[in-house]
């Protein structure tokens, strides 16, 4: 059974070798290998996710790059090859010694494409487990993965509980693409009770909330602008400037009116285009997102954004292609699970409890798992555990207080065993 030192070492290993969406090749290979070492039979590849349903899936060349790095840093070559070819999701079940419900527990594995701070005030840098190749666990997914393996270890060692626990090690939470690819492979089928866990959230280490409010529905988009190149001085009138079109579209999108019926967010995350200073830009590409506390409002705002993008294209004579690359929904947490988690946390000496639900300001595609479970008559919640983080999420200085991990682990184990 995994002890605290091993839990910390595992989290730091995942942190040092952070991998972004659908490139969690080393991480998922280690997860699968550890589950097999517990005597479990994990599902991987097409049995755990459908890569063919994913928009903008990483190229074979990109996957091979991460596969080579995974083998060099200690992952099993056969597992790495399988993950690189067929996908990085991992599912495993632990059966209790009595009949009972099927639990679905989601643990996300992916990092962000963010350069991690090398400041000596940053604990991973000072402790030698900073990731140094352009990815970073700036949202605590390294700790989530370690917690999932720790819980699997405990339940496999002592099956004194009712029902079955299905561990859902999910790729690509960032960008809202991984859950849908797993649902397409049947990962949510038959689940009666679903729980996602998240550490951090600018709360004191170990402060537990059994549920959340305010998880935002979101749509992620990519817009490609295709114009006509021309000499910028000799024949500018013969060109159609894709970059100017995209810049105009950006301003129009950010100027869209907000809604009176729900909170909304819009962000343009990237904009690239053009080839050289003396060429009318023939191409540009933008990534952007809409979010709202209401799923219908998020969908309506998404359509307005698409209209603004295409309207700029029509004005400048530039073709605009808009693709939805990912997304997630709002989530309603069921009181039965929320109250059970809060009661358990109140019993633990190292855990603090919230007054009511934790207010969230982001999105998470765990909501798609939850909706599938609830539509089939099951119940779901999203549990949070404060990580004592002093820097915000998605920041180069983000880190957690590792004492929060055993709190999350203890609460989840007690929840299952009850």
Task: Describe the model.
The protein has 418 residues and is an alpha/beta fold. It contains 12 helices and 14 strands. An 8-stranded mixed sheet has the order 1-2-4-3-5-14-6-12. It has a 4-stranded antiparallel sheet with strand order 9-10-8-11. The model has no long low-confidence stretch (mean pLDDT 97).
Q: How many whole angstroms does the radius of gyration measure? A: 22 Å
Largest sheet: 8 strands, mixed
Query: If you average the pLDDT, what whole number results?
Result: 97
In N-to-C order, the SSE pattern is HHEHHEEHHEHEEEEHEEHEHEEHEH
Helix content range of the residues, please? Answer: 25-40%
- Total of helices: 12
- Which runs of at least 5 residues are low in confidence (pLDDT < 50)? none
Sheet with most strands: strand arrangement: 1-2-4-3-5-14-6-12
Q: Supply the helix-strand structural class.
A: alpha/beta
Brief digest:
It contains 12 helices and 14 strands.
Primary descriptors:
four-stranded antiparallel beta sheet; 22% strand; alpha/beta; 418 residues; eight-stranded mixed beta sheet; globular; 12 helices; single chain; 14 strands
Lay out the secondary structure.
Elements (H helix, E strand, L loop, with lengths): L3 H13 L8 H13 L5 E2 L15 H13 L4 H10 L3 E6 L2 E11 L14 H5 L13 H17 L4 E9 L7 H6 L9 E8 L6 E3 L2 E2 L3 E10 L15 H13 L9 E10 L9 E10 L2 H22 L2 E10 L6 H13 L4 E2 L4 E2 L6 H10 L3 E8 L17 H14 L1
Parallel strand pairs: 3-4, 3-5, 5-14, 6-12, 7-13
Antiparallel strand pairs: 1-2, 2-4, 6-14, 8-10, 8-11, 9-10
């Amino acid at each position: 059974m995994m002890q605290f030192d091993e839990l910390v070492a595992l989290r730091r290993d995942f942190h040092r070798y952070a991998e972004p969406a659908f490139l969690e090749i080393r991480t998922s290979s280690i997860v699968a290998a550890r589950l097999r070492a517990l005597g479990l039979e994990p599902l991987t590849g097409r049995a755990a996710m459908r890569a063919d349903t994913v928009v903008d899936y990483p190229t074979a060349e990109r996957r091979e790059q991460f596969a080579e790095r995974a083998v060099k840093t200690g992952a099993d070559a056969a597992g790495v090859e399988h993950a690189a070819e067929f996908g990085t999701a991992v599912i495993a079940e632990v059966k209790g010694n009595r009949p009972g419900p099927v639990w679905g527990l989601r643990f996300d594995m992916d990092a962000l494409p963010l350069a991690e701070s090398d400041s000596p005030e940053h604990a991973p840098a000072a402790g030698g487990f900073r990731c140094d190749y352009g990815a970073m666990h700036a949202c605590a997914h390294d700790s989530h993965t370690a917690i999932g393996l720790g819980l699997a270890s405990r339940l496999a060692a002592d099956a004194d509980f009712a029902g079955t626990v299905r561990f859902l090690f999910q790729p690509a939470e960032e960008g809202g693409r991984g859950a849908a690819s797993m649902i397409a492979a049947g990962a949510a089928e038959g689940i009666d009770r679903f729980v996602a866990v998240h550490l951090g959230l600018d709360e004191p280490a170990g402060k537990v909330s059994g549920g959340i409010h305010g998880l935002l529905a979101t749509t992620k988009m990519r817009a490609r602008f295709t114009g006509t190149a021309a000499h910028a001085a000799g024949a500018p009138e013969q060109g159609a400037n894709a970059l100017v079109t995209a810049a105009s579209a950006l301003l129009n999108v950010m100027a869209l009116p907000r809604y009176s019926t729900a909170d909304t967010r819009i962000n343009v995350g990237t904009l690239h285009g053009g080839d050289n200073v003396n060429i009318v830009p023939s191409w540009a590409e933008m990534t952007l997102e809409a979010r709202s506390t209401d799923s219908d409002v998020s969908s309506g705002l998404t359509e307005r954004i698409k209209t603004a993008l295409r309207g700029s294209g029509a004005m400048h004579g530039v073709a605009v292609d808009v693709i939805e690359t990912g997304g997630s929904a709002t989530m309603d947490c069921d009181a039965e699970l929320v109250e059970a988690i809060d009661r358990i946390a109140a019993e633990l000496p190292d855990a603090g409890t919230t007054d009511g639900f934790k207010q969230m300001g982001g999105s998470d595609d765990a909501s798609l798992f939850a909706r599938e479970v609830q539509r089939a008559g099951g119940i779901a919640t999203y549990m949070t555990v404060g990580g004592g983080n002093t820097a915000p999420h998605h920041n180069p200085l983000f880190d957690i207080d590792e004492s929060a991990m055993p709190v999350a682990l203890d609460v989840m184990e007690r929840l299952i065993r009850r």
